[in-house]
Batch of 2 targets.
Target 1
Amino acid sequence: MFGNKASFIRPSLTARNKGKTLFDDYDGFVGKFEAKKTTDDCYTPAEVYNVVLNYVSEKCNIKGAEIVRPFFPGGDYENCDYPEGCVVVDNPPFSIISKIAKFYIENNIKFFLFAPHLTLFSPRMDYTRIVVGASIVYENGANVKTSFISNLFEDIIVMSDPDLYRKLERINEAKNVNLPKYVYPNEVLTVSAVQWCVERGVSCLLKKRDVYHVRGLDSQKTHKKAIFGSGYLLSEKAAAEKAAAEKAAAEKDNIIIWELSERERNIIKSLGK
């Protein structure tokens, strides 16, 4: 259907510590385990995975690449024998997703991974954040707001896809609009702000040179606040592209607008050069 077959990697039954083999009976294997309602044991519904795999096949140059899925109960992703040129498209344990991404980057393994939506911007790592924020109900009943991370998009650090959001939301029939409690200046990008645009059909694409990672603003310190899930300071050019949406949001009632400090404005002036 997608031109790329997805295979599951597990330890070899005859030489557990010497290598891994591919197998296709994932349903039978997972059936041996009692379902747990945690984000680390979420068996992805086939229809959800197919939508994601189709998206990766359409958006990325992976023609002929073997798609592998090393994450399942009792799996050992670090010791798998990954086929040359393969791409990992899977739903990993969210609690160690930074460790997993670091392993793949250091070992030059391509990946497109499900990721926790609200903390998508937290790690300072060299990969693309694909903001989707779809409410996915996994096979074990866990309902998790999900986005994605990948190293398949080269220089792009943040992007979004409203079409992927709609397709995933349609599967679960659960549209949960999550407006941010605070509104930040146009020069600040949060994952919630991008998601807010995604739900309204607006795409976002940012280059590494136009952003600076921050965990909070100077103006928030006196209030003992920070940016939930971290965020980015944007160059003036990048900020201008989202100014209209920020202005519309600022007109709503009961909204606190955090101001940028002089130090942060100087950082922004240095971006994109």
Target 2
Amino acid sequence: MNRIRKIILYGLGGLTVLAFIPLFAAFEAHVINVTAQIENALFVHPESLEYGTVFPQEHLNTSFFVTFSESFSESSQTRVGTIEYAIKQKPKPLPAYVAQIGVDSARAWCHDNYPQTPYDPAITVWQDYLSRCYPTICPALSKHPDNNPSTGPNANNDIGLPAFHNPWTEFAIGKLVKFPNINNDPADTWTIDLAVPCFKGQCAQDWPNFVLGQNPNAGDPLQYELPPELEHQTFGCDLWVEVTKIY
């Protein structure tokens, strides 16, 4: 019995000591200071592309330029030297809606609430959507890389996307390389080609050839015809240059 009693007492004593250990440890602390300066990795110019009034089956080209940000370009910045990015297409909010709730919230709403049913001006969901967002022109915008450099280890490292595609799942892909100084790829110029769609019931007979000539993998050309009720409207699309990897 004494032996058992001793074991129990030792156990209680052990519990008492363990209970007090955190109290003693709390009187000593070590602080590790963490700081970081967060900068954007890319510079994109210009901020907007405007085509003005266009007509069915026209081809209209414009371009934008992508390069390293000033911070990424600094000679003292040698830790990382490669940026991979994607060019995505998303629905564009109307200016009045942006002014009402802010650009980030407006963009998110137009992207998340795009109607899943075919366009019908009598359907409330489409009426509500087009009161906040532009009718989209995203599927008709191609992205063509500059194919520069054309030789060396970084040759043709960008992947374009023809017009008449699915903007929700298909993207153009780019890559910038800072090091080494020879055979690097510090900038990309992308040509954005608007292959203007026609309105259903008003398309030329060669419309299928026009679509498939731009993109042989476009599928049924009829799906890219615009609703005639939207004639005279301004169409829009936001191109997002999104960094996907830095190393």
